[in-house]
Specification:
This protein is mainly α. The chain has a domain at 84-212. It contains 6 helices and 2 strands. Strands 1-2 form a two-stranded antiparallel ribbon. Helix 2 crosses helix 3 (105-130) and helix 3 (105-130) packs antiparallel against helix 4 (148-161). The termini are far apart.
Length: 217
């Protein structure tokens, strides 16, 4: 009987042992031969942990060091990042033959888009105006009627009147990616030249392009 009781006491003592990692209840000491493990500790959160990452500038925002004039406005000689269509067109004509400085993507592409839409509209109007009285040559070429003449005149003025400002705008766009404006001569290579200039005009600004700036009042 004594052996059974001793075995029961040992089993009861083992059954009363708290799980590993927990202190005995009510401040009781752990049974002899079973030292209480140290209290479990949890890693402390490091300062700044889970803080939001440093905010990067969004698309169209000017890089650091953007020149500004009186009242915080960007001077005409400097590139205007995030320009709207009206402002881009205004700067396009004000810098008619200015091959110095830089032009942002918004300055460049708003003007290109407006010019493309204008050409499409003139083409459709000229086609419709030239249908009455039009003739077809022996080789199948359509000769527009007299109604196309005024539209063609406007078309010619637009084409020859914007050659110089478009060349200067293209040079300034290349300056903004830190490339010489003389690279526009690659347009003389059929197909490939225009494709290369198109890809380059999509690139973002490079701070080193500021070497092409010519600050003035």
């Amino acid at each position: 009987m004594a052996d059974r009781n001793d075995g029961a006491d040992q089993q009861g003592g083992q059954a009363q042992q708290p799980p590993y990692g927990q202190q005995p209840p009510n401040g009781q000491q752990a049974p002899y031969g079973h030292p209480a493990p140290p209290p479990m500790s949890y890693p402390q959160q490091q300062p700044g942990y889970a803080q939001p990452a440093y905010a990067q500038p969004s698309y169209g925002q000017p890089p650091q060091g953007q020149p500004s004039g009186p009242g915080g406005t960007v001077p005409l000689w400097a590139p205007l990042y995030g320009a709207g269509p009206v402002v881009a067109a205004t700067r396009f004509f004000k810098k008619y033959a200015d091959f110095t400085g830089r032009a942002s993507r918004s300055e460049y592409w708003w003007v290109v888009l407006a010019n493309s839409v204008l050409y499409i509209v003139l083409g459709v109007v000229g086609l419709l105006a030239g249908l009455p009285g039009s003739t077809t040559d022996y080789d199948g070429t359509l000769e527009p009627g007299p109604g196309f003449i005024p539209v063609g005149f406007v078309f010619a003025i637009l084409l020859f009147g914007t050659i110089v400002p478009f060349l200067s705008l293209g040079a300034r766009r290349l300056h903004d990616i830190n490339v010489s404006g003389w690279l526009l001569l690659i347009n003389l290579v059929p197909y490939l030249g225009g494709f290369v200039i198109f890809i380059l005009s999509l690139l973002g600004p490079k701070p080193a392009g500021a070497r092409f700036d010519r600050p003035r009042a």
